[in-house]
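= Paired protein data =
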Amino acid sequence: MKRIIQQIRAAFAGLAPRERLLVSIVGGLLAFGIVWLGGVSPLLAAGDRAEERVAAAEQRLEVMRRLRREYDEVSQRLESVEQRIREGGRGNLRTNLEQLAKKASVKIESMEPQSSPANESYREAKVEVGLKEVGLNETVRYLHEIEAAQQVLSVKALRLRSRSDTKGKTASNLLDVTFTVSSFQPK
Protein backbone atom coordinates (compact mmCIF):
# COMPACT_ATOMS: atom_id res chain seq x y z
CA MET A 1 0.00 0.00 0.00
CA LYS A 2 2.90 2.36 0.84
CA ARG A 3 4.37 1.63 -2.55
CA ILE A 4 1.18 2.68 -4.36
CA ILE A 5 0.98 5.91 -2.35
CA GLN A 6 4.64 6.68 -3.21
CA GLN A 7 3.95 6.10 -6.91
CA ILE A 8 0.93 8.45 -6.79
CA ARG A 9 3.04 11.14 -5.03
CA ALA A 10 5.82 10.76 -7.55
CA ALA A 11 3.37 11.04 -10.45
CA PHE A 12 1.74 14.10 -8.82
CA ALA A 13 5.16 15.72 -8.24
CA GLY A 14 6.01 15.16 -11.91
CA LEU A 15 2.99 17.19 -13.08
CA ALA A 16 3.15 20.79 -14.17
CA PRO A 17 1.74 23.35 -11.68
CA ARG A 18 -1.45 23.82 -13.75
CA GLU A 19 -2.01 20.07 -13.92
CA ARG A 20 -1.48 19.74 -10.17
CA LEU A 21 -4.11 22.41 -9.57
CA LEU A 22 -6.55 20.66 -11.89
CA VAL A 23 -5.91 17.22 -10.30
CA SER A 24 -6.27 18.76 -6.81
CA ILE A 25 -9.62 20.33 -7.72
CA VAL A 26 -10.91 17.09 -9.29
CA GLY A 27 -9.66 15.11 -6.29
CA GLY A 28 -11.36 17.54 -3.89
CA LEU A 29 -14.62 17.32 -5.82
CA LEU A 30 -14.35 13.53 -5.85
CA ALA A 31 -13.73 13.47 -2.07
CA PHE A 32 -16.65 15.87 -1.53
CA GLY A 33 -18.92 13.65 -3.70
CA ILE A 34 -17.93 10.54 -1.78
CA VAL A 35 -18.60 12.26 1.56
CA TRP A 36 -21.91 13.67 0.27
CA LEU A 37 -23.20 10.41 -1.20
CA GLY A 38 -21.82 8.22 1.55
CA GLY A 39 -22.67 10.30 4.60
CA VAL A 40 -24.70 13.48 4.26
CA SER A 41 -27.29 12.36 1.69
CA PRO A 42 -28.35 9.23 3.63
CA LEU A 43 -28.65 11.30 6.79
CA LEU A 44 -30.89 13.85 5.06
CA ALA A 45 -33.02 11.06 3.54
CA ALA A 46 -33.36 9.43 6.96
CA GLY A 47 -34.44 12.79 8.41
CA ASP A 48 -37.08 13.20 5.68
CA ARG A 49 -38.40 9.68 6.29
CA ALA A 50 -38.51 10.39 10.01
CA GLU A 51 -40.54 13.56 9.39
CA GLU A 52 -42.96 11.60 7.20
CA ARG A 53 -43.32 8.91 9.86
CA VAL A 54 -43.96 11.57 12.49
CA ALA A 55 -46.64 13.21 10.30
CA ALA A 56 -48.28 9.83 9.64
CA ALA A 57 -48.17 8.97 13.35
CA GLU A 58 -49.75 12.32 14.23
CA GLN A 59 -52.54 11.69 11.72
CA ARG A 60 -53.17 8.23 13.17
CA LEU A 61 -53.15 9.71 16.67
CA GLU A 62 -55.73 12.32 15.65
CA VAL A 63 -57.92 9.60 14.10
CA MET A 64 -57.64 7.57 17.30
CA ARG A 65 -58.59 10.61 19.40
CA ARG A 66 -61.62 11.26 17.18
CA LEU A 67 -62.64 7.60 17.38
CA ARG A 68 -62.24 7.70 21.16
CA ARG A 69 -64.47 10.79 21.41
CA GLU A 70 -67.08 9.10 19.23
CA TYR A 71 -66.84 5.91 21.29
CA ASP A 72 -67.26 7.88 24.53
CA GLU A 73 -70.31 9.70 23.11
CA VAL A 74 -71.91 6.44 21.99
CA SER A 75 -71.09 4.83 25.33
CA GLN A 76 -72.73 7.73 27.18
CA ARG A 77 -75.85 7.51 25.00
CA LEU A 78 -75.98 3.74 25.48
CA GLU A 79 -75.63 4.13 29.25
CA SER A 80 -78.41 6.73 29.20
CA VAL A 81 -80.71 4.41 27.24
CA GLU A 82 -79.87 1.46 29.51
CA GLN A 83 -80.63 3.60 32.56
CA ARG A 84 -83.95 4.65 31.03
CA ILE A 85 -84.74 0.98 30.38
CA ARG A 86 -83.92 0.01 33.98
CA GLU A 87 -85.82 2.95 35.51
CA GLY A 88 -88.51 3.43 32.86
CA GLY A 89 -92.12 2.45 33.01
CA ARG A 90 -93.27 -1.11 32.56
CA GLY A 91 -96.39 -2.54 31.10
CA ASN A 92 -97.89 -4.21 28.11
CA LEU A 93 -96.69 -2.65 24.86
CA ARG A 94 -100.04 -2.96 23.09
CA THR A 95 -101.92 -1.40 26.02
CA ASN A 96 -99.47 1.49 26.22
CA LEU A 97 -99.73 2.12 22.47
CA GLU A 98 -103.53 2.16 22.68
CA GLN A 99 -103.43 4.66 25.56
CA LEU A 100 -100.98 6.88 23.66
CA ALA A 101 -103.21 6.69 20.57
CA LYS A 102 -106.21 7.90 22.59
CA LYS A 103 -104.09 10.72 23.98
CA ALA A 104 -103.09 11.74 20.42
CA SER A 105 -106.67 11.28 19.09
CA VAL A 106 -105.66 8.55 16.65
CA LYS A 107 -107.55 5.35 15.86
CA ILE A 108 -105.31 2.29 15.48
CA GLU A 109 -106.37 0.10 12.58
CA SER A 110 -104.13 -2.88 13.41
CA MET A 111 -101.44 -4.08 15.82
CA GLU A 112 -99.50 -7.17 14.84
CA PRO A 113 -96.87 -8.69 17.14
CA GLN A 114 -93.46 -9.15 15.49
CA SER A 115 -90.65 -11.49 16.37
CA SER A 116 -87.54 -9.89 17.81
CA PRO A 117 -83.97 -11.16 18.05
CA ALA A 118 -82.79 -12.57 21.36
CA ASN A 119 -80.62 -10.37 23.54
CA GLU A 120 -78.79 -11.50 26.65
CA SER A 121 -79.52 -8.29 28.59
CA TYR A 122 -83.00 -7.17 27.48
CA ARG A 123 -86.32 -8.56 26.33
CA GLU A 124 -87.62 -6.76 23.28
CA ALA A 125 -91.31 -6.70 22.42
CA LYS A 126 -92.20 -5.57 18.90
CA VAL A 127 -95.52 -4.57 17.43
CA GLU A 128 -96.31 -3.39 13.91
CA VAL A 129 -98.88 -0.60 14.11
CA GLY A 130 -101.15 0.28 11.20
CA LEU A 131 -103.07 3.54 10.96
CA LYS A 132 -105.57 4.24 8.15
CA GLU A 133 -106.89 7.56 6.96
CA VAL A 134 -105.04 9.75 9.45
CA GLY A 135 -103.79 13.26 9.01
CA LEU A 136 -100.15 14.22 9.12
CA ASN A 137 -100.64 16.26 12.32
CA GLU A 138 -102.26 13.33 14.13
CA THR A 139 -99.50 11.00 12.95
CA VAL A 140 -96.77 13.33 14.17
CA ARG A 141 -98.57 13.82 17.50
CA TYR A 142 -98.88 10.05 17.99
CA LEU A 143 -95.23 9.41 17.10
CA HIS A 144 -94.18 12.16 19.49
CA GLU A 145 -96.28 10.60 22.27
CA ILE A 146 -94.55 7.26 21.62
CA GLU A 147 -91.05 8.79 21.72
CA ALA A 148 -91.85 10.81 24.88
CA ALA A 149 -93.48 7.91 26.76
CA GLN A 150 -92.30 6.89 30.23
CA GLN A 151 -91.55 3.39 28.92
CA VAL A 152 -88.58 3.21 26.53
CA LEU A 153 -90.15 2.82 23.09
CA SER A 154 -88.39 2.92 19.74
CA VAL A 155 -90.10 3.57 16.40
CA LYS A 156 -88.63 1.79 13.41
CA ALA A 157 -89.52 1.11 9.79
CA LEU A 158 -91.92 4.03 9.32
CA ARG A 159 -93.85 3.92 6.04
CA LEU A 160 -96.23 6.66 4.92
CA ARG A 161 -98.58 6.33 1.94
CA SER A 162 -100.94 8.98 0.74
CA ARG A 163 -104.56 7.84 0.76
CA SER A 164 -106.44 7.58 -2.54
CA ASP A 165 -110.18 8.08 -2.85
CA THR A 166 -112.49 5.65 -4.69
CA LYS A 167 -111.77 7.24 -8.11
CA GLY A 168 -107.99 6.83 -7.72
CA LYS A 169 -107.30 10.49 -7.00
CA THR A 170 -104.93 11.25 -4.16
CA ALA A 171 -106.50 12.70 -1.04
CA SER A 172 -103.60 14.88 0.05
CA ASN A 173 -104.65 15.29 3.65
CA LEU A 174 -105.05 11.61 4.59
CA LEU A 175 -102.35 8.97 5.04
CA ASP A 176 -101.98 5.27 5.65
CA VAL A 177 -99.14 4.82 8.14
CA THR A 178 -97.33 1.65 9.16
CA PHE A 179 -94.47 1.46 11.63
CA THR A 180 -92.89 -0.89 14.12
CA VAL A 181 -92.58 -0.05 17.82
CA SER A 182 -90.17 -1.85 20.14
CA SER A 183 -90.11 -1.80 23.92
CA PHE A 184 -87.29 -3.05 26.08
CA GLN A 185 -87.26 -4.51 29.57
CA PRO A 186 -84.33 -5.88 31.54
CA LYS A 187 -84.21 -9.65 31.90
Observations:
- The chain has two domains: 2-63, 93-186.
- Strands lie at 110-114, 122-134, 153-164, 170-186.
